[in-house]
Write a structure and sequence with these properties.
globular
């Protein structure tokens, strides 16, 4: 499977999980499904999954970033550190109501990843 195919499958899986969460009115469904998916990957698949998660960290859509941050934190994806730093810089310049909270979460995850 190529990386592009893998990316497409992960994006479709996330979208499907998000739709299911909305049907059930349970936002935790997405995190649970993505955690299960990530856990099912072998070493080679995790390398590709990490690349997709890093792309999600930098996504324009806040919901996608939220899911990415959860995966990065849950699985300690250290390769995401530069993307997290870039996201923190972008959030520092935003004036949206949620930006300060997302920036605090991002900074906390960066600290966790660099502390270990």
């Amino acid at each position: 499977m190529t990386f592009e195919e893998f990316r497409t499958e992960m994006n479709e899986y996330r979208k499907s999980a998000d739709e299911r969460a909305m049907e059930l009115k349970d936002p935790q469904v997405v995190a649970e499904k993505l955690d299960s998916l990530y856990q099912s990957f072998d070493a080679q698949e995790r390398i590709m999954a990490d690349r997709v998660v890093i792309e999600w960290v930098l996504a324009d859509e806040e919901a996608i970033r939220f899911d990415a941050l959860a995966l990065v934190e849950d699985f300690q994806i250290r390769a995401a550190t530069p993307a997290l730093q870039e996201l923190a810089s972008r959030l520092a310049d935003q004036r949206t109501p949620g930006a300060p909270f997302e920036r605090a979460k991002t900074d906390r995850i960066i600290a966790e990843l660099t502390r270990s």
